[in-house]
Each structure stands twice: as C-alpha cells, then as structure tokens.
Design a protein that fits this description.
The structure is a single chain. By secondary structure, the protein is mainly α. It has one domain. The protein has 12 helices and no strands. α2 packs antiparallel against α8, α3 crosses α7 and α5 packs parallel to α12. The longest helix is centred in the middle third of the chain and has 38 residues. The protein is elongated and about 65 Å long. The N and C termini lie close together (12 Å).
Length: 328
C-alpha cells in the first residue's frame, strides 16, 4: 500500500497541474476575443473536463499503459520516478509561462525511467514511434486545419455586418465547452493509465482494467486544476502569438475540437496545448503572416522539442536516486 499511495497521489497531482496549465491555453482564444471572462471560462472548462472522461472510453489510457513499455519493467519505483519528473517539468514550464506539453513530459518521463530500470529492451519501439509521430504532427495538422477554416469563415462572412461577431462569440462558448470535454477525456486518461499501471505493479490487479474510482480521481484532479488555472500561459497563447478577434477564435476553437476529438477516438494521447497553439498560429498566418509574433512561436517550439528528452533524462536520474533508498 505504501507504494501505491504515492503513485495515486502523484497521478492526481500530475492531472491537477495538467488542468491548471492546459485549461488556460484552451480558454485563451475565447477570453482574448472577449467572448467570456477568464474565471467564467475556466469554470466552464473545469465542468467539461470532469465530464469528458466518462464519455469517450479508455483507449488513450490503454495506449499509454500497454503500448510504450514492457509491462514487467513497470515497477512502483519506475512510476514514482516518471511522475516526479513530469510534475517537476510541468511546474517549471508553468512558472515560466510557456505552454509546454504535459503529454510530452509524461511520455518522456515514463520512457526514461523504464530505460534506466530495464534497458533498451523495455521499450516498444513501434508504439513509441507511432506516438512520437502523432505528437509531432498534431500541431502541424492543427495549423493546416485552422488555416483552411479561417479562409472559409472569411469567405462565408465577406458580406456580413459587424453583428456577426456576436454569433462567433456565442459559437466560441459552445466550442470551448466541447473542447473541454475532448481535453478532459484525452488528458485525464493519462492519469488513469498511470493509476492502473500502479495497481498492476503493486499486485492489486493482474489485468489492465480501469476501475471507476480511477476515473473519478483523474477527472476530479484535472477539473480542479482547470478551475484554479493561472493566467500566465493564457497570456502567452491568447495575446503573444497573434491578436485574436472573434472570427479567429471561432476558427481556432473549431479546428482544435476536430484534431483533439479525432485523436481521442483513435486512442492516441496528444498535447491539447500544442494543438491550440497550432490553431492560433494557423489562423494568424491565414489572416496575415506578418501579424504572427514568430519570436514567441520560436520560444514555444523550443519548449516542445526539449520537453520529452529533458523529462526522460530527469526521470532516469530520479530512478537512480530512488533505487538507492527503496527496495521493492
């Protein structure tokens, strides 16, 4: 039990930080376009994220728990080291105000800890390769989808009066709630997957079956983090990449929903933060390339690229330290 408790607590804390950081990115477009106030938007997203994990199954949790590393290499110490690395990295990125990927951090940390524990044979290279491709391509796909959508929106509203902005703002609120459902389902399943892996590693379960209590813990932690979310990442996504107006926010929200929901149904964990940033860059480039603040984009891209290997290295070091003092 003493090894299971820190795993469950760590998974909940990871989920809380995930919600705290990612929710402000999700709400950035709806707030910067003045469709909602920050706290109203965060509360709405928190409610949606709590409901999301109960609606879309557990395919993402299964992919994370069984498709990346050999089951026998997943010990309690490996999970504790992976969670510790992901949590520390998320705290650093939140303090810096950078929308780095919580998913990259957790995946990198899990791979790094498993490698440190059992060597290269612990990794399923086909599963890792597929996931890395999804993580790398998702912001590019989001960019392209939002680019095309804004062109379509501009064409369809070419003769509209300024009152059309009221429609865009209303639609943004609906789409923000839908994105919260999609994000809650995709991201809560990462904490769920870790909890189930912990149950197997500590002998409380022999198969990858998701108990309802794990869903409640993960969704509750994610939702609480979203409701209490800070606003530094919101400023980076909503104001420092591109000045968003209602039609841009609508196109970005719609594109984000398409990409995140598609990945969730397919069972692939992705970074909602990356997707939202990709859509904001897409609508900005579609409007006018010169209006995008590419220096900010560069800082965000650097954080994305560094996160996975940095989290893997940190998790490996944590496993080494923990293995010296914990015998299981």
């Amino acid at each position: 039990m003493w090894t299971l408790v820190p795993i469950v607590v760590g998974a909940a804390l990871y989920g809380f930080l995930n919600g705290y950081k990612d929710a402000v990115g999700i709400t950035a477009t709806v707030v910067s376009s003045r469709a909602m106030r920050p706290r109203e938007a965060l509360f709405l997203i928190g409610v949606a994220e709590f409901c999301g994990p109960f609606l879309f199954g557990t395919a993402v949790a299964s992919k994370l728990g069984r498709g990346l590393v050999l089951e026998t290499s997943v010990t309690p110490v490996v999970l504790i080291a992976a969670l510790g690395s992901a949590i520390v990295w998320n705290l650093c990125m939140t303090w810096l105000g950078l929308p780095a990927s919580s998913t990259h951090a957790l995946v990198g940390a899990l791979l790094g800890a498993a490698y440190a524990s059992s060597g290269i044979g612990a990794l399923f290279f086909s599963g890792v390769l597929k996931l890395v491709i999804v993580l790398l391509l998702s912001p590019l796909v989001a960019f392209l989808v939002s680019y095309v959508l804004l062109k379509l929106v501009l064409f369809l509203s070419r003769n509209a009066t300024p009152r059309v902005n009221l429609l865009f703002k209303t639609m943004q609120i609906i789409l923000a709630f839908a994105l919260g459902l999609s994000h809650g389902s995709n991201d809560a399943q990462k904490s769920i997957g870790i909890i189930v892996m912990g149950l197997i590693a500590t002998g409380y379960s022999t198969t990858f079956e998701v108990p309802l209590s794990a869903v409640f813990i993960a969704s509750g932690a994610l939702a609480l983090g979203a409701i209490l979310g800070g606003e530094r990442v919101m400023r980076t996504v909503g104001w420092e990449i591109f000045r968003i107006r209602p039609m841009h926010g609508f196109a970005a929200q719609l594109a984000s929903n398409i990409v995140v929901l598609g990945a969730t149904v397919a069972g692939y964990p992705l970074s909602t933060t990356q997707v939202v940033c990709g859509t904001v860059m897409g609508v900005g480039s579609s409007d006018r390339l010169s209006r995008v603040r590419w220096n900010t984009v560069g800082r965000i891209a650097l954080a994305w690229l560094v996160t996975l290997p940095a989290a893997a290295l940190l998790a490996g070091l944590l496993w080494r330290l923990l293995s010296l003092v914990i015998v299981i």
